[in-house]
Write a structure and sequence with these properties.
The protein has one domain: Divalent-metal-dependent TIM barrel enzymes (TIM Barrel), CATH 3.20.20.150. Helix content is about 40%, strand content about 20%. The radius of gyration is 18 Å and the shape is globular. α3 runs parallel beside α4. The strands form three sheets. An eight-stranded parallel beta barrel has the order 1-2-3-4-7-8-9-12. It has a two-stranded antiparallel sheet with strand order 5-6. A two-stranded antiparallel sheet has the order 10-11. It has about 290 residues and is α/β, with parallel strands linked by helices. It starts with 9 loop residues before the first strand and ends with a helix. β7, α4 and β8 form a beta-alpha-beta unit.
């Protein structure tokens, strides 16, 4: 696959609590991602520290509150601020969730869109408006969800239809596929293989919380588990190696443990890039670990 990505390698979500600790990251992290809503118009010490990082690393933006599928008008004031933030920090890519989080006020949760044909057209039209305003393609993330109201289409058919109708990119969240496959009883490998790989801008990987055998909660508050690592390996096999970012939002471990997971991404990317005839038994053991 031709590398068309705006960044390469393994990245990490930048949180304010990491600003001091990550100064020792050296070459472990290849790119960073921030939620622009948390940094727009931030000055003082935090603003200076952010600038130090954006001058050192390529930066991506992952939005939290645009509510791309919401029933109310798009927040053009927020989009104006995001566009200025992206220009000021030379942001390589902007992404949002395939969900909504507002209805005449923010709901502070990412809620699932009804998987219907009408919803495909509605959401795709809003994505196109955002792309026109930002003057670039955006990436839409497959979300974790816990109910599927008014479902007419399968999740995979809905995602494929939105991406095609909007002509946008995909932020492939591997953990969300695994979580949904358990919660909604489908095969994660089959779902992964059905995604349009040519639309992948980059990927996310994260940990989750097991509430029960058949209920996983996407928390970004734990280490990545082995089945999710293996699903990432499958994604690389299907689509080639794409930039992949570790999300960790709370229960943050010591920074050396966090960077060890970033290194695990890089190691698996390196193995996936090897021609098959050069792969050794130790490579296979490492991927299965």
């Amino acid at each position: 696959m031709v590398n068309h990505y705006s960044v390469t390698g393994a990245g990490l979500g930048l949180r304010r609590s990491l600003l001091e600790a990550l100064k020792s990251a050296e070459d472990t992290v290849d790119f960073l991602e921030v939620a622009p809503e948390n940094w727009i118009n931030v000055g003082g010490r935090f603003g200076r520290q952010l600038r130090e990082y954006t001058e050192r690393y390529p930066l991506l933006c992952h939005g939290l509150s645009l509510s791309i599928a919401g029933p109310t008008e798009l927040d053009w004031a927020l989009l104006k601020n995001i566009k200025e933030f992206m220009r000021d920090h030379q942001v390589r890519c902007y992404s949002e969730h395939l969900s909504y989080c507002s209805d005449n006020g923010h709901l502070y949760d990412l809620l699932p869109i009804p998987f219907t044909g009408d919803a495909v057209k509605f959401v795709a039209n809003r994505i196109r408006q955002v792309q026109d305003f930002l003057e670039q393609s955006i990436a839409i993330e497959n979300i974790s969800y816990y109910a599927a109201p008014q479902q007419e289409l399968s999740e995979i058919d809905f995602i494929r239809a939105v991406l095609e109708e909007a002509d946008c990119d995909l932020l492939l969240d591997v953990n969300n596929i695994y979580v949904n496959s358990i919660n909604h009883d489908y095969d994660a490998e089959d779902f992964l293989a059905a995604l349009p790989g040519h639309r992948i801008a980059y990927g996310h990987i994260a940990g989750h919380f097991a509430e029960a055998e058949d209920l996983l909660v996407d928390t970004h508050g734990a280490d990545v588990i082995d089945p999710v690592w293996r699903l990432l390996d499958s994604a690389y096999q299907h689509f080639g190696v794409f930039p992949t970012l570790l999300e960790r939002d709370f229960n943050l471990p010591p920074v050396n443990q966090l960077l060890a997971e970033v290194n695990t991404i890089k190691e698996r990317q390196k193995i996936a890039e090897k021609p098959s005839f050069l792969k050794t038994d130790s490579d296979q053991c490492e991927l299965q670990a």
